[in-house]
Every structure is written in structure tokens, then in C-alpha cells.
Amino acid sequence: HVIEHGKLHERTAIITKLAGQIVRMSQQKFASNVVEKCLTFGGPGERQLLVNEMLGSTDENEPLQ
């Protein structure tokens, strides 16, 4: 609910806190809903952070393999 309706700084804090756990969370029934909301309502930088984590890339300049 906070990710969808909260203030920008609240959303950013939550997404930043979840970074590093996204792959594991995306494999769990209810946690995957949280990951989906983060991707839907996060800002461009936050979405890129999460996508990089899912793809296994920590450096946005690193080519995907």
C-alpha cells in the first residue's frame, strides 16, 4: 500500500531496503507482489536498480551476457 500510495521518500526508502533481496522475493508467492509494485511504482533509477539485480548486473555499464 505504501509503495503505491506513499510519499516519494517513503517509496524510495522501502525499495532501497529491499534491494539485494529482489531475486529471492520474486520467487515467493506474496513477496513477488511487492516486487511487482516496486517495479510499477518505483522511479526510473529504482526500477533500473531492481532490474540490474534480477539480471545479475551490478554495474549499469557492464554488458549483459
Could you explain how this protein is built, in words?
The structure is a single chain. The chain is built from 5 helices and no strands. With 65 residues, the chain is mostly helical. It has one domain.
Structure, briefly:
With 65 residues, this protein is an all-alpha fold. 66% of the residues lie in helices and 0% in strands. The chain has one domain (2-55).
Share of helix, binned? 55-70%
> What is the count of structural domains?
1
Q: Please report which band the strand proportion falls in: under 5%, 5-15%, 15-25%, 25-35%, 35-45% or over 45%.
A: under 5%
Low-pLDDT residue spans: none
Mean of all residue-level pLDDT scores: 86
Descriptive keywords:
mRNA binding; mainly alpha; ARM-like; single chain; PUM-HD domain-containing protein; PUM-HD; 5 helices; globular; about 60 residues; repeat
